[in-house]
Every structure is written in structure tokens, then in C-alpha cells.
Design brief:
Layout: E1 17-24, H1 29-43, E2 46-52, H2 57-60, E3 65-71, H3 80-91, E4 102-109, H4 118-129, E5 133-134, E6 139-142, H5 150-165, E7 179-180, E8 183-185, H6 189-194, E9 209-218, E10 227-233, E11 246-250, H7 255-265, E12 272-274, E13 276-277, E14 291-293, H8 294-300, H9 310-319, H10 323-334, H11 341-347, H12 352-358, H13 366-372, E15 379-382, E16 390-395, E17 397-401, E18 404-407, H14 409-415, E19 422-428, E20 471-476, H15 480-494, E21 506-512, H16 522-531, E22 534-540, H17 556-562, E23 567-573, H18 577-587, H19 592-597, E24 601-606, H20 610-619, H21 627-640, H22 653-657, H23 686-709, H24 714-726, H25 735-757, H26 781-784, H27 795-804, H28 818-843, H29 849-864, H30 873-906, E25 912-915, E26 923-928, H31 932-945, E27 947-952, H32 962-965, E28 970-973, H33 981-984, E29 992-994, E30 1010-1012, E31 1022-1023, H34 1033-1041, E32 1064-1067, H35 1071-1088, E33 1093-1099, H36 1108-1115, E34 1121-1126, H37 1137-1140, E35 1151-1155, H38 1160-1173, E36 1184-1189, H39 1193-1205, E37 1210-1213, H40 1222-1232, E38 1234-1236, H41 1240-1248
Parallel strand pairs: 1-2, 1-3, 3-4, 4-5, 4-6, 20-21, 20-23, 21-22, 23-24, 26-27, 26-29, 27-28, 29-30, 30-31, 33-34, 33-36, 34-35, 36-37, 37-38
Antiparallel strand pairs: 7-13, 8-12, 9-10, 9-19, 10-16, 11-15, 11-19, 12-14, 17-18, 25-32
Helix pairs in contact: 1-9, 7-8, 9-10, 23-24, 23-25, 23-27, 23-29, 24-25, 24-28, 28-29, 28-30, 28-39, 29-30, 30-39, 35-38, 36-41
Length: 1254
């Protein structure tokens, strides 16, 4: 204990406890909560270390406690980045975990899943068994919680966590600090004279010098707010201004803030203290060990003006002695909702000093503020001139509350500077870390600029002054200052050249608020216009009722202006606004992808402004007839009446989502039913997603030119199939394979184009055989594989960057094409499904020219229909829907071809009981997927070696083919649907071969004995070859080395909850069996009343617990029902076969397994035959209900076939595709009878009591 100064702590500092905050995260949600916990841990006197669970062993030997946030993946297992640690825990291999180490777990789950939060429960048990001590019951959060989702549980868990772990900051306890500030002397006369010097920095900070102000003039109109100023200052030594692009300014708090803080802390500003850092204090040379006046510490070290962080408020709550203040602070810190008090106060300029004054009873000290309050940091500004040290900034009134006026820290400080004053600056050629920040001239000094788009160490000015290359500059607000420096540099460079005729090669799109008020540097730009090389398009956003931006002035002429060699530069507010600019450029036809790929697109974006984000989002949505478009119109009407403009969400999907690491919503499992943004739920990385997007884009272009070739190209046709097949969900995750495919497709495209354009027929018109200029053909791809140093990137890196420019989201950037683009996505996914079916037939040397012709036609349509050049949306929707229906027709042909391929090669499917038990005494191989021809080839290899082969997933129907049953090594079936690989493959005592989708992320428990073939791939997993070049030898050797099944009476994998595994499953009820052998029996049973309705229940299965709908539906059907099931969706119902029994005394089961997903063709044939036999005029009179589960793109192809055939209604679930807009859904439900599934009991009742199709 030491003697203290009034208002300062007299408590010694306890050592901080080390808290390991560990996460297991599949899609990033658990990681985000773990990272939120970090700053809050500091305020509770913990030293946090945040890492994935797989890295825990490197941290646990030093950790005093653990806090784990873990989501549940797949079938209830831990996410990939936690799996290894968990397995080592279970085996007892984690020696770093000290016995008794306290831990707490937050589980993130979905209560609709049958294994809700299983990962958190398993981790809790494993940590306890390994010697850890749980300090609170594991918290099981449910994403389906309608009030706050995971936020509610997180908040409660976190509050209990600090109490349970015994953080030093307890209610009413003494504050823990990492500084001591003993008084050196009492306030002297000299100190009293020093106190008024607040407003001039006294501390010397490394890297900063004092610059003298030469001028600080207002450049906006007199009396206009916000006030815009141009500050010119002297050089720090000898420096070439042309080499300087950025200025770091070190601000200080205003005297008013300092005096308010001193009053709240009851401190004398003139008192001098000795600043003594303790353990845990951040190194700060300018104050450590120094004798400093309190005035200096409050003015130059602690950021009193910024918005207090939630963790700081939570710290205040922890030390508050007044119960009411503690509760209010706790609520303020932990209410994470967008309508909570924290966000409301933040929007009003709520500062750290405001927080201190709002809660006057919280015991505070100077040491506490030095320990926990944010420090003043430099703000980075872009230079506003190419010849002088000038920067521009706004000094806005951020918020007024009565007599209180809130201003930005840095900008308001600079506004007080007069000629001759000095301030602390550092000059830079690029921003710190090579990530230029360039000032926050329009943001009130609340933070540094974000910088996007420009690679490190590349200067904006130096890279644009290239003579002869057209330049487009977009500048918003005070971003014009940076644009001014660029234009000056460009003008200076132009003077080195001699022009006989002036030519405009630069266009400036400049947005501001009011003409004649804040349109800065207009006279200077007018001079450039008079010189003949600059065109200026100015837009005053607030001069009229409707909010407008420079983007409204852009049209297709800009694309013509930029051409192939143009450059684009953006300067202005950050957030999503730069993305909206990019979207607009795409809309008007600018080849953004090529410009960015060639390094000619750069952005200098400063801090995000939420108001501007919302306004830009709204203006990007104009022109819609949808609700969001109407909302925009309401905003304009309000503005005309002088009312406050409302803001609405962007009317485009791209506008709503903004920039993401990836965007994929092609399957039903997509994140939160919207789209995967950071990593695919399937395990797809953003890099693989980009490569897939690029491959699809290139296949469209190949299809276009194949369509224009007007002659067959067999090699290109087959490549087209394989490339599309590889992009299906859960097929290929191997980056290197996609690089090879892109190269092959690009080479094929060049070859086909050369055939078109090298024709010697001079009369041949080739003008219509080119794509619109707005469609980037990515011709530079060929160079990537011939020039290793292109863009200083590997081919893979360069292709990933190209792929990001043609990602799915970019096609949803125009407000008039949202519905048509949704339908085009549906078409694209349907084409992928058709390609998969056709590729299976191709492996068996069965091909249909008509299918190839349609694929070429559809791809050409998709390539030409550029969202950057939209038609009337109604016409666009009609054309896209017509093409979708044509795709449904083509898919019927593809499914028929595949059925015929299998039937003629392997025999007509016939009923057969398949064993679900092992055959003892044999080595074994497990085969999953769909490829029956590959299975036949494998059986030919295993027969002489007496290695048994078991099927998995959709390979179950293989047992119905006589040509496969003839092999004695086809032993039986193992497991269930594809998504159960993680719980079933570890239990198989031999190698596993995955032939097609669906492949899930391999686990270490079986990864070393997993093989892929065909288009399937995963990095690091052994691949046996493609198509007809598969080498089975490594697989066979692995089988011989594996233990096999010798004394096993049963397989020991776990069955889904609530299911009892039968001894056998019956398969083989294809349409030929039903129509030729059972039709008479079925018709007779219908007439007798033993059958009242037929149901087609099947499709694709998936992880989600709410897929139990299909089980519950079938359980509740009347005993006079007959269910035809197919695809992996059969596993939701086929275990019910014994319960439903047989049809009368016929011995025919009431659940008939039709086959694989492509055998929807058989179900259609059965329905048609039954309708004819029962004298129905059409299928609508047949007592038939179609209930489909969809997951991936083959299911979309089947759905399109149903739409083409007029089958309706079609009940589909468990959720509707994310790419279907409300307008399209209305068409599908009204015109095509698509019905989302509902409650299974209600649906069962309605279907059973309907007349005809229902």
C-alpha cells in the first residue's frame, strides 16, 4: 500500500490471469463471439489469448482458465478447427491441460437439428474427463431463438463467466490497474501556468516532428456547415512533395474535454506525477517513467473524445459501487441489438467523458484511465496537392445537444490552428504497413481511412500519370482533395508531352452536397476543362428532393470511354460505398474485372459512414416496382414535403450483402438460408469458390462460342460437362484441379474461336459471333500459364482474383434484374445437374447430341444476357423462365439416357433385399456416390481378390442391377445418406472410395484411407483418376492392408436418432418392374380401396433436423398409401418399410425404392402409366402427391423437369432456394403449383383427403 493523491487508487495491482479464449467455428460465427470476448476479458483483469481449439495445446500450459465458444458441424461433430484437439482430449494425449483448470463453454447450435449442440456437450465431457473443472453449466445457444438469436445466450453466459472465474473486477472491489502515478510535487506557480497550455502537444513521439502552419483557410462557402478547410504547412526538412502521399497527424484533446475529465476525477491539472508502468502495461516511451503534469496526460495520452468501447463500459459496471449505475452500465455494454441504447448514444456523439459524467458514482482514478481507456492515435490524411504540403478536412458539428456541441478530435484541433502554430505530423510515401489510410476528411476525425483495392506500396499519384490511357476518377465529398492531388500529378505529366489537338482523356465524377457551397476546387478544375483534357460531371446530392450521386450520371458512354486500357480511381467514404461504385460501373458496361486484374482499378476509401451507406444503398435500388423501390419513392416524397428522408435497405442482393470473402447460395444448406460469405457450410474455401465462379464464367463463354460454331466439337462438349459437374455442391474442393480445368476450358475456347474467325469465307458474317463488351472474356488467362511473373502472382492466385470479379453476387447488382437473375441462377444450377447426369452416361460411352446442343444454347444465353445491360424485367423474366422449362425438358432426356445406359449395360433393375450387416472373414472396400459404371469396374478387380465391396449413400440402388449382383464381392450396404460420412466412415474397416457428390470434409480418423475418383476431389486426399483412366491399385492395396470384417456380427456405426436399423432394405422398383410386373396388381388394389393415394417422397437429404418432416409425413399417412421414394432422401423413410407393411395380401411393400435421384425419370414413367391405366385425362386427376426434398443442383434439374411436365402441385422443402426472389416464387406457386412444405401432420391430412393430384 502506498500513500495516494486524492482521486487516485491506493491499491496494489494483482497479476493478470491468463485466459485462453478458444473457438471451434465452421462458418465464423463462433469465432466472432470469441473475439468479442477478448476486449471484455481485459476489463476483468484477464490477459486474453484467442485461438482455434486446435491450437489450444500451445496455450494451455500458461493458461489460468479457458473459455470455449464452439458450434456444431455436420452430424454433431466439432468443427474442423477444433476436431484434432477434441480427439486428442478423448485419447488422453493433451498433457498441457493442468488438472483443475477452470473452463466454461458456450455452444452455438440450431434446435431443429437432431443433435442440437452435440459438439459443446461432447467438449464439456471431454474436458471434464481430462481433468478440467467446469465452472458453470455449458450454455446451449439456439439460433432459432426469435428474440436476439445467439446474442441473448452469449450475454448471459458471459456475465456468469466473469463471476465464475472470479475476475478481479468484482462488484464494489478495488480497480486493478497497470500504472502507478505517485505525486512528484504539488501544484506550483509554474505548473499552474503550464495548465492553460492544453491545446499544444508537449510530448515527443517517435517518428513525428513539428510542422509550422502556413495557412488554414476555409474553402467552403461562408456560413456553410460542415466547414471545409485547406491546411498548408511547412516541410519537415528537405522533402520532395511529389514523393509524399500521406500525412499522419497526432491530435490532442480540447481544453474543454480535459477540464471536464479533471473535474470528474477531482484532479488538479497542474499536479505533476511520476508515470510508473507495471506488469501488463503497453510500452509507451513518451510517458513511461516520465514526470508529467496531469494536464498533459489527459490532453495527449487518453482519448477523451472517442466513443467508449463496450468493454470499457463493462469494466465500469464491474467496479461500480452503486447498484443502479452498475445495472445501467451492464445493460449499455451488453445490449448488442441495433436499437439498443449503446447504438443510440453512439449515434449522438456519446464520448468517453460523457460516460464518466453520466455515471458519477463509479470510483475512478487516473491510473484506471491510463490502464483501460483508449489512447490517442495518429489520424492519416491523404495529401491534397502534388506540389504543396496541403491537406483538406471538414470540421463538422457531429451532433448538437442543447448547448453541447460535439466535434471530431483531430479535425476540430486542426481548425483551431493559425499561421505560425505548430502541430505534430509524420510524412509518408504510403500509409503505415503499406495500407494507405489517407485521412478522414469527411468523418470528423473519428478514425483513420480504410484503404481497399490498392496493393501495398503502390502510390495513387505515380500509377495514374500514364499518357494516353483514359482515366475515370470518382470522388465523393472531401475525397475530392485526394483526387485533386492526382489530377495535378496527371497534368504535370501531360506537360511533358506535346499535343497538336487537345483530347479529353480524364473524366471526373464528383459528388458533394450543395452547389456553390461545398463543391471544392471548382475553379481549378474548370481550368483543366478549358485546357481540353478533363471532363467534369458534378452532382449535388441535396440540391433536389431525391438523393442523387455521381453514379446517377454514369451511363454506357463511360464504358466506351475507358475501353480496354482505361483506369479507375475512387476517393471517398468507405464501408460499402466503394462496392456500390463498382456495381454501378459494372451496370453501365465497364469491364471492371479486366481493369482490376491488370492493376488499373484503385480505391482510397476512408472511414465508413453508416448514413451514407444507407443513402447509397437506397439510391442503388431506384427503379424497382418492389417494396424496396416503393420505399425509395416514399423517401423522395418525404423529401419534397421537407420531411426527413428515410433510408431503406438496398433493393439489390449485391447492395444488401456488400463486400464478402465469397458468395455461394447454390445449395439448400447455405448459411442461414441466405448465402455463404466467409466459408462454405460444405467446407468450400473462398479461394475455391472464386475458382469455381471463374470456371463457370469461362464455361459460359465456351458454350457461347460452341453454339456459334454451328458444328460439333466432341472434346469441348465433354470438357463442358466435366467442368460444370466439378462445381456441384460437395464434389470438388481441390484448388489445383480447378486451376487445371480453367486452363483447359480457356484453351478450348481459344481453339473454338479460332475455328469461327479463321474462316476463309469472306461473306461469312462474324459480327454476331462475339459477346457484348460488358462480358469479360478474361483473355489474359492464357498468359498466366506462359508467364510465371505476370502480376507477380502464381497462376492460382491470379485466377482467384479473376474469379472474385465474376462471382455470383456481381450478377445481382442491377435493381431491374433481381428476379431474372434469380431465374438465371436456377437455370445455371439446373445445367449443372443436367451435366452431372450426362457425364455419368458419358463414362459409359452414351451421349446425346441434343443434350449437348441445349447446353450450348443455354450457356450462350447466360453468357449474352449481361446484367450490366438489362432489358425490361418482365421480358427478362419471361425469357429466363422459358429457358428454365427447356432445361427441364433436356433433363428428362438426360435422365432417360442415364437410365437406358444403366439398364442396357447392367440389366433392368429388379427387386432385391440388401443386407445391412457385414460378411465376416473378408477384406472390404466402401463405395459412396452415384457412379454405377465405376462400381462395375471396381467389382471386376475385387472379384479375383475376394475383397468385398459395400455400397454407401446413393449407391444402395446398385444392388437392384443384375449386372452388378452377379459379382460375388458385392456384399451389402453400409450406412445411410451422404452427410453421415463423418460418423460412419470412421467405423468402416477398410478404405473408402467417393465417386461423385456428395463428399464432406474428411476427418483425420479416415482421411488416410479415403480415395476419390472422377470429378471428386479434396486437397491431400488420394485421387485415382478421371473418367475412364482410373487406377484402382492403390485402393486395392489399402483394402488388403486394412483389417476388414472378420468376427463382426454387425456394423457399429450409430444410427440416426429415433431410427431402428432393419436387417435388410429392399430396392429395385424401377418403372419397368412396376409398369410391366406390378401395374395390374396396383390397379386392382386401387379399385378395391386398398390403395387410395400414391406419394413420391424423396430427393436429396441433408444435415438439418427439420428434414424430419419427411419422416413425420410418411409416418402419418393413411394405411392405404403407397410411397415411391428415391435419391438419398429415401433414408428419411425407408426404415419405416416394416411399419407400413405390404399392400393388402400382395406382398408388395408400401414403400417402393425407385432408385437414385436420376431415377425420378422412373417415378415419372410410373405416374404416367398409372394415370393411363386408371383412365385419367391427365396427371392432375391421378391421386398423387409429390413431396421433394432438395439440396443441390441435380435436385434443381429434377424440379425443372417437373415444371416442364406440368406436374403440380409440387411440395418442396425443407427451405426454398435462396436465389428465388419473392416475385419469382409468386410465379412458381401461382402458375406451376410449387408449394413450400408446412406442418407434416397438416400436410398429410390435406394430401390424404384431396381429390386428384395434391
Amino acid at each position: 500500500m502506498r500513500l495516494g493523491l486524492r482521486g487516485l487508487s491506493t491499491t496494489t495491482t494483482p497479476a493478470r490471469k491468463r485466459l485462453a479464449i478458444l473457438y471451434g467455428s465452421q462458418t465464423g460465427t463462433a469465432e466472432s463471439y470469441a473475439r468479442m470476448l477478448g476486449p471484455q476479458a481485459v476489463s476483468h483483469n484477464f490477459e486474453p489469448v484467442i485461438a482455434p481449439l486446435n491450437a489450444a495445446e500451445d496455450l494451455l500450459h500458461q493458461a489460468d482458465a479457458m473459455a470455449c465458444v464452439v458450434s456444431t458441424a455436420g452430424n454433431g461433430e466439432l468443427p474442423r478447427n477444433a476436431e484434432r484437439f477434441y480427439e486428442r482430449l478423448v485419447r488422453g494425449d493433451v498433457v498441457a491441460l493442468r488438472r483443475g483448470t477452470p473452463f466454461a463453454i458456450l455452444g452455438l447450435g440450431d434446435s431443429s437439428h437432431e443433435r442440437f449442440n452435440a459438439a459443446a456437450k461432447a467438449l464439456d465431457k471431454a474436458l471434464t474427463n481430462a481433468g478440467g473443472t467446469s465452472v458453470q453449466q455449458v450454455a446451449l445457444s439456439d439460433d432459432n431463438n426469435l428474440i436476439g438469436g445467439h446474442d441473448v445466450t452469449y450475454r448471459e453466459w458471459k456475465r456468469g463467466l466473469w463471476q465464475s472465474l472470479g475476475g478481479s473486477l468484482t462488484k464494489g472491489g478495488a480497480p486493478t490497474v497497470v500504472y502507478e502515478c505517485p505525486r512528484v510535487r504539488r501544484s506550483s506557480k509554474a505548473d499552474q501556468e503550464e495548465a492553460p497550455r492544453v491545446g499544444t502537444r508537449l510530448l515527443d513521439v517517435e517518428g513525428f516532428g513539428r510542422a509550422a502552419v502556413e495557412a488554414n483557410e476555409v474553402v467552403s462557402a461562408t456560413g456553410y456547415e460542415p466547414v471545409s478547410r485547406k491546411l498548408r504547412f511547412s516541410s519537415l526538412g528537405k522533402v520532395d512533395v511529389a514523393d509524399v502521399e500521406y500525412v499522419d497527424v497526432l491530435p490532442h484533446n480540447s481544453r474543454q474535454l480535459v477540464e471536464r475529465a479533471a473535474k470528474r476525477l477531482d484532479l488538479d491539472l497542474g499536479t505533476v506525477v511520476d508515470v510508473v508502468p507495471l506488469d501488463g502495461a503497453p510500452p509507451t516511451p513518451e510517458i513511461d517513467g516520465q514526470h508529467l503534469a496531469i494536464a498533459t496526460l489527459l490532453a495527449e495520452v487518453i482519448d477523451l473524445s472517442g466513443i467508449p468501447a463496450r468493454s470499457f463500459l463493462e469494466g465500469l459496471a464491474a467496479i461500480a459501487t452503486d447498484a443502479d449505475e452498475s445495472a445501467e452500465l451492464d445493460d449499455l455494454a451488453n445490449d448488442l441489438s441495433s436499437t439498443g441504447d449503446y447504438d443510440k448514444l453512439s449515434a449522438r456523439g456519446f464520448s468517453l467523458v460523457d460516460a464518466l459524467e453520466r455515471f458519477p458514482k463509479v470510483p475512478l482514478s487516473l491510473e484506471y484511465l491510463l490502464s483501460y481507456a483508449p489512447r490517442i492515435t495518429p489520424r492519416t490524411y491523404s495529401l491534397a496537392s502534388d506540389s504543396n504540403l496541403e491537406l483538406c478536412y471538414n470540421d463538422p458539428v457531429c451532433f448538437r445537444d442543447g448547448d453541447c456541441i460535439y466535434r471530431g478530435l483531430t479535425t476540430h484541433m486542426m481548425a483551431q490552428l493559425k499561421p505560425g502554430d505548430t502541430f505534430s505530423v509524420a510524412l509518408r510515401q504510403e500509409a503505415p504497413g503499406g495500407n494507405p489510410g489517407g485521412g478522414n476528411p469527411g468523418g470528423g476525425g473519428q478514425g483513420q481511412q480504410e484503404r481497399r483495392g490498392t496493393p501495398p506500396h503502390q502510390k495513387i499519384k505515380a500509377t495514374v500519370a500514364e499518357e494516353g490511357k483514359p482515366l475515370c476518377v470518382v470522388a465523393l465529398g472531401t475525397g475530392i482533395s485526394s483526387a485533386r492531388a492526382l489530377l495535378q500529378a496527371r497534368r504535370k505529366q501531360k506537360h511533358k508531352f506535346v499535343h497538336n489537338v487537345p483530347m479529353v482523356d480524364t473524366v471526373l465524377y464528383y459528388g458533394f452536397r450543395h452547389s456553390g457551397k461545398d463543391d471544392l476546387f471548382s475553379d481549378e478544375f474548370r481550368g483543366y476543362v478549358d485546357e481540353g483534357w478533363l471532363e467534369v460531371k458534378k452532382t449535388a446530392s441535396d440540391d433536389q428532393a431525391a438523393f442523387v450521386t455521381p453514379l446517377d450520371a454514369m451511363d454506357s458512354s463511360l464504358a466506351d470511354f475507358l475501353g480496354a486500357n482505361g483506369q479507375v480511381r475512387y476517393f471517398g467514404v468507405g464501408g460499402d460505398v466503394p462496392y456500390y461504385v463498382e456495381l454501378k460501373l459494372r451496370q453501365v458496361g465497364v469491364d471492371v474485372a479486366s481493369i482490376k486484374t491488370n492493376g488499373r482499378y484503385r480505391e482510397e476509401a476512408f472511414s465508413k459512414d453508416l448514413d451514407i451507406d444507407n443513402l447509397m444503398a437506397r439510391t442503388m435500388g431506384r427503379g424497382l416496382s418492389s417494396s424496396s423501390g416503393e420505399a425509395a419513392a416514399d423517401d423522395d416524397a418525404a423529401a419534397e414535403k421537407g420531411e426527413t428522408k428515410k433510408t431503406t435497405a438496398a433493393a439489390t442482393l449485391a447492395g444488401r450483402v456488400g463486400r464478402t470473402e465469397m458468395w455461394c447460395f447454390q445449395c439448400e444448406q447455405t448459411f442461414k438460408g441466405q448465402g455463404c460469405r466467409t466459408v462454405g457450410v460444405c467446407g468450400k474455401t473462398p479461394r475455391v469458390a472464386a475458382l469455381q465462379d471463374l470456371l463457370v464464367h469461362k464455361v459460359k463463354i465456351l458454350g457461347f462460342y460452341l453454339h456459334e460454331l454451328e458444328q460439333d466439337d466432341p472434346a469441348a462438349n465433354r470438357l463442358m460437362l466435366n467442368a460444370l459437374f466439378a462445381t456441384l455442391t460437395n464434389v470438388n474442393f481441390d484448388e489445383s484441379r480447378f486451376v487445371d480445368l480453367v486452363a483447359q476450358v480457356h484453351e478450348a475456347t481459344d481453339r473454338v474461336k479460332s475455328q469461327i474467325f479463321s474462316s476463309s469465307d469472306e461473306k461469312k458474317d462474324t459480327s454476331k459471333k462475339t459477346l457484348p463488351p460488358s462480358v469479360p472474356e478474361m483473355s489474359m488467362i492464357g498468359e498466366l500459364f506462359s508467364s510465371s511473373d505476370l502480376l507477380s502472382q502464381s497462376p492460382a492466385d491470379a485466377l482467384v482474383n479473376l474469379g472474385r470479379e465474376v462471382n455470383v453476387l456481381e450478377r445481382f447488382g442491377h435493381p431491374r434484374t433481381q428476379s431474372s437473375e434469380g431465374l438465371r441462377e436456377m437455370l445455371m444450377y439446373g445445367l449443372k445437374g443436367i451435366a452431372a447426369y450426362a457425364a455419368h452416361s458419358m463414362v459409359n460411352h452414351r451421349e446425346d447430341p441434343e443434350i449437348y446442343a441445349f447446353l450450348r444454347k443455354a450457356l450462350a444465353y447466360l453468357a449474352k444476357e449481361s446484367p450490366q445491360q438489362p432489358k425490361d424485367d418482365d421480358d427478362d423474366v419471361a425469357a429466363a423462365l422459358e429457358m428454365c422449362l427447356e432445361a427441364g425438358k433436356a433433363n428428362v432426356a438426360a435422365m432417360a439416357l442415364l437410365y437406358d445406359s444403366h439398364a442396357t449395360t447392367l440389366g433392368v433393375p429388379s427387386p432385391h433385399d440388401v443386407s445391412l450387416r457385414p460378411r465376416p472373414g473378408r477384406k472390404a472396400i466402401l463405395v459412396s456416390g452415384h457412379d454405377l459404371i465405376l462400381l462395375r469396374d471396381l467389382l471386376e478387380k475385387t472379384e479375383p481378390l475376394e475383397i468385398d465391396v459395400y455400397t454407401h449413400g446413393e449407391m444402395l440402388p446398385a444392388h437392384s442391377y443384375p449386372g452388378l449382383r452377379k459379382f460375388g464381392t458385392l456384399a451389402g450396404h453400409f450406412g445411410g445418406a451422404w452427410f453421415r460420412q463423418s460418423v460412419e466412415f470412421p467405423k468402416f474397416k477398410g478404405p473408402v472410395l467417393v465417386t461423385t457428390n456428395c463428399l464432406t470434409e474428411p476427418h483425420d480418423t479416415y482421411g488416410d484411407r479415403l480415395f476419390t475418383a472422377g470429378q471428386v476431389g479434396w486437397p491431400g486426399i488420394r485421387h485415382l483418376g478421371d473418367e475412364n483412366t482410373i487406377d484402382f491399385e492403390p485402393l486395392l492395396r489399402a483394402a488388403m492392408d486394412a483389417p476388414g470384417f472378420f468376427e463382426d456380427a454387425d456394423f457399429d456405426y450409430a444410427d440416426p436418432l429415433g431410427q431402428t436399423r432393419p436387417k435388410t432394405l429392399r430396392v429395385g422398383y424401377g418403372h419397368e418392374t412396376i409398369v410391366k410386373e406390378l401395374a395390374g396388381t396396383l390397379i386392382n388394389q386401387v379399385k378395391k380401396g386398398t390403395i387410395t393415394r400414391f406419394y413420391v417422397v424423396g430427393g436429396c437429404d441433408g444435415f438439418e433436423g427439420h428434414r424430419s418432416y419427411y419422416t413425420d409425413l410418411v409416418k402419418n399417412l393413411p394405411p392405404t398409401s403407397v410411397v415411391l421414394t428415391l435419391g438419398c432422401g429415401k433414408y428419411r423413410v425407408n426404415h419405416l418399410a416394416e411399419n407400413l407393411g405390404t399392400i393388402g395380401d400382395t406382398g408388395v411393400p408400401r414403400i417402393l425404392d425407385v432408385g437414385q435421384c436420376n431415377d425420378a425419370y422412373s417415378a415419372i414413367q410410373v405416374a404416367s402409366a398409372l394415370a393411363a391405366a386408371l383412365d385419367c385425362d391427365d396427371l392432375s386427376q391421378l391421386p398423387l402427391s409429390i413431396v421433394l426434398s432438395w439440396f443441390e443442383q441435380k435436385a434443381i434439374a429434377v424440379l425443372l423437369s417437373c415444371l416442364h411436365l406440368g406436374l403440380k402441385p409440387i411440395h418442396i422443402g425443407p427451405a426454398l432456394p435462396a436465389f428465388v426472389t419473392p416475385d419469382v416464387l409468386k410465379v412458381l406457386t401461382t402458375d406451376f403449383g410449387v408449394v413450400p412444405i408446412g406442418d407434416p401432420l397438416e400436410d398429410a391430412y390435406l394430401m390424404a383427403n384431396a381429390t386428384g393430384a395434391s
